Amino acid sequence: MNSISMIFITIGVIFDLFGCIGLIRLPDVYNRLQSATKSVTLGTCSILFGFFLRNGFGSSGLKALIAIPLLFFASTVAAHALIRGSYKFGIKLYDKTVVDHYKDAQK
Q1: What pLDDT score was predicted for residue 7?
Q2: Structural domain for 65, as ranges
């Protein structure tokens, strides 16, 4: 069980690292938030699940298990609100952006 939890924790750290690299490398705020939300949410949930497997159903393990859905829903809703607010505030999309669904929704 210890090796399985370490696999989940390692996968989570790798996903978090990719999310951080995406924050630096991607061109605009919309792509950066997408990178942060998708990869960091999956990475942190994987770390929490590995922590739960390592500690079991104790108090800290249950807190980690409860934090997984809270983190999943809160981060996706917060990223959506930030992206929508950025768009309404007038922050421009990247020049090579192909699809703009919000422009069609505002008509």
Answers
A1: 96
A2: 2-106
Q: Which of 60, 57, 106, 53 is nearest to 84 (CA)?
A: 106
107 in helix, strand or coil?
Answer: coil
Q: Which of 5, 15, 7 is nearest to 41 (CA)?
A: 15
Ranges of H-type helices in the chain: 2-25, 29-35, 41-55, 59-89, 101-106
Tokens 């490398």 -> residue: 25
Q: What is the pTM of this model?
A: 0.83
Number of domains present in the structure of the chain: 1
Q: What are 107's two structure tokens?
A: 């008509």
What pLDDT shows up at residue 13?
96
